[in-house]
Amino acid sequence: MSLLLVYGGCSTRAKNDTAWPMAIAESLPAAAAESDATGTLLHRSCPNCGNDNAQTPALAYSWEHWVLRECAKCSFVYLENPPDYADFAVAFAWERNHGDRSKRMKTEYPVSHAVSKGWRKFYRAVVKKPDKLANRINKWVPPGVVIDVGCGNADRLLVLPDHYETCGIEISEGLAHEAQELLAARGGSIINAPAVEGLASFPTGKATGVLMRSFLEHEHKPIELLTHAERVLQPGGIAIIKVPNFASINRRVMGSRWCGFRFPGHVNHFTPASLRAMVEDAGFGVMSFNALDRFFLSDNMWLVARKD
Ligand SMILES: [Zn+2]
What we know:
By secondary structure, this protein is α/β, with parallel strands linked by helices. The chain is 33% helix and 23% strand. It is built from twelve helices and 13 strands.
């Protein structure tokens, strides 16, 4: 299936260039015969090393029919049977399912859910949190084209300083439309496509920044995505990555209640070591990934990488 719609003018792919959909189609994992109310499910081998772990026992963190595996070869934790991209574009679009975890917590853990919700409401009311993404962009990303992968409704692009030209990639048709409308006044373009296809449509060396905030954990093919991110950047260009930290203390304490477990949206569970290794294997140099960036008490970690 080919799904790539461009709003605005930031795509530079020639209209008669059919090379990328063929390459993407050939690289997709084979779809399993499994199909039910959740749509067609894929069967993934380890996205980090390629090992098929179908015979490995599912992790206890698995939920309902969603199967989490820990790779027997490299220990990477991943969702083996995510819905395919077509389902993500419609039935599993972010704006339709992001409340699923909250409903699950409310049903399965009503007391801790209520306490947690109250605490978060109080915390947000009294604590002014720093804008970690904006701070990193201002510190690291040179002026030029910035591509936000999984841009949602373009809220992050809208607030970028004027010396950045904004582009977004969003798989949800509804959010892509909303993003383009919101971005129209500022100037910028949205590609409605899966992330790898969207990045593949950019020429080499086009951008000075690629943002992957809370995205890489959703990507079926994280190595391909990082490889394209490195390709589309100019030398000296910066990628900013934020993902949940599977090695966090909270995951060990909270178990299945950990906020990093979202089914079926989160398909990769990175540790600091596996994130760094995958980023470096894609050709990046790691610029910032210190103890505070991957603080063991935090649910998330931030990494800044540069194309040399
Ligand atoms: Zn593996």
